[in-house]
Amino acid sequence: MNRIEPSIGISRRYLHDEVADRMRELINDGELEPRARVNESELTERFGISRTPLREAIKILATEGLLELLPNRGARVASISRNELEEMIEIIAGLEATACDLACRMITDEEIAEIEAKHREMVAAWQGRDEANYFRLNREIHEAIMGASRNTKLRSLYVGLTGRIQRSRYSAHQTEAQWAKAVEEHEQMIALLRARDSEGLASLMRLHIRSKKPVIAAMYGEEGH
């Protein structure tokens, strides 16, 4: 049987994949808001591309649920019904709780030290009412714990699901009491992580994520069934 040598120099990454990545960032950062129409002319000029890769990227994001295709009217950023939002948060809570369980078994002292350093920065941002840095560091802490699980399949599921609500999850308006409670829960998380208390950390993480439901629903969700 003839052996087929692997091709050399062939890129496995297509332009529309890169465009899809850029658009995901715009959606997750809130620049493209829920129910906002996708302005193809503006994006082709911004990315320096033709409409073909942009439209391919739009199809990719539509299959992921980030965009909605409108018959003969282009596309818009997807909205999320209240029921769908609650279901997504429950799944995210489960994924993060599982990550906590695994991380407590796999995490290194160096990784814990890095997470603690981010936590101290986050607390300082909270005290200074620096919302942008607070929410960025908050997200990085959750992602670091997920990464410490050493489970690529778990992380892939997590990334795929959280994209739709990432911005609202970390930047939704909170009352002072809600904000203080979230910081206190993060303090407890650090202590449990340091103690490698997998059961305690997983349980706290579920409660922490579930407590976000009303805050996220007020910003991003819409009534629906």
UniProtKB/TrEMBL annotation:
Alphabetized Pfam families for the sequence: FCD, GntR
Gene3D superfamilies documented for this protein: GntR ligand-binding domain-like, Winged helix-like DNA-binding domain superfamily/Winged helix DNA-binding domain
One Gene Ontology molecular-function label: DNA binding
Transmembrane segments: none
Keyword terms: DNA-binding, Transcription, Transcription regulation
CDD domains, sorted: WHTH_GntR (cd07377)
SUPFAM superfamilies for this protein: GntR ligand-binding domain-like, Winged helix' DNA-binding domain
Domain HTH gntR-type: 13-80
Protein name: GntR family transcriptional regulator
Species of the source: Methylorubrum populi
